[in-house]
């Protein structure tokens, strides 16, 4: 995940080469509107790199449909309003939103942001193809929690 400007300055051809050598499968560029991403999408498509787009609970349904058509790899369904790393927990209201996202997408839908507990995983699991855990993983690493112990706190 990166903002567009560092990737643009680095150069798309050099970026693709470095990404492929490092085993990268795709990119999330959160500040790139789909209407302005044609050039980099074409470069990524030629290299078989995914361009993962994000939708949020505030994204209107017609916009979700448009974004889903431009996403490759998977569609990232942000599950909370706000920023990543929060401790507020997930609202059950996310279910209707995820049903809308899933119905709009022809590729896998993965949900993330605010996923910290087994209860969060149990809430999301029936509605998505994958669940993304970010901040809680970073915290587990900082606390030197083993991978197995961490995963056991999330398994539904």
Could you provide a short overview of the structure?
By secondary structure, the protein is of the alpha/beta class. The chain has helices at 4-10, 12-22, 38-47, 61-70, 94-104, 118-124, 135-142, 147-152, and strands at residues 26-28, 50-55, 75-78, 109-112, 130-132. The protein has one domain: Aldolase class I (TIM Barrel).
Features of the shown structure:
156 residues; alpha/beta; TIM Barrel; 8 helices; 5 strands; 13% strand
Topology:
Elements: H1 4-10, H2 12-22, E1 26-28, H3 38-47, E2 50-55, H4 61-70, E3 75-78, H5 94-104, E4 109-112, H6 118-124, E5 130-132, H7 135-142, H8 147-152
Parallel strand pairs: 1-2, 2-3, 3-4, 4-5
Give a structural overview.
- This protein has helices spanning 4-10, 12-22, 38-47, 61-70, 94-104, 118-124, 135-142, 147-152, and strands at 26-28, 50-55, 75-78, 109-112, 130-132.
- It is α/β, with parallel strands linked by helices and 156 residues long.
- The chain has a single domain, classed as Alpha-Beta Barrel (TIM Barrel).
- It has a 5-stranded parallel β-sheet with strand order 1-2-3-4-5.
- Strand 1, helix 3 and strand 2 form a beta-alpha-beta unit.
- The longest helix is centred in the N-terminal third of the chain and has 11 residues, at 12-22.
- The mean pLDDT is 93.
């Amino acid at each position: 995940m990166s903002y567009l400007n560092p990737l643009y300055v680095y150069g798309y051809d050099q970026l693709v080469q470095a990404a492929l050598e490092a085993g990268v499968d795709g990119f999330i560029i959160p500040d790139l509107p789909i209407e302005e991403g044609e050039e980099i999408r074409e470069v990524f498509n030629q290299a078989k790199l995914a361009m993962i787009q994000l939708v949020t609970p505030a994204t209107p349904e017609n916009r979700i449909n448009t974004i889903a058509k431009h996403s490759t790899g998977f569609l990232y369904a942000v599950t909370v309003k706000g920023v990543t790393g929060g401790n507020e927990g997930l609202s059950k209201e996310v279910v209707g939103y995820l049903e809308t996202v899933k119905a709009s997408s022809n590729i896998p839908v993965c949900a993330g942001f605010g996923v910290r507990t087994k209860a969060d995983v149990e809430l999301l699991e029936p509605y998505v193809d994958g669940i993304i855990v970010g901040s809680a993983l970073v915290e587990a690493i900082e606390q030197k929690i083993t991978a197995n112990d961490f995963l056991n706190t999330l398994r539904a």
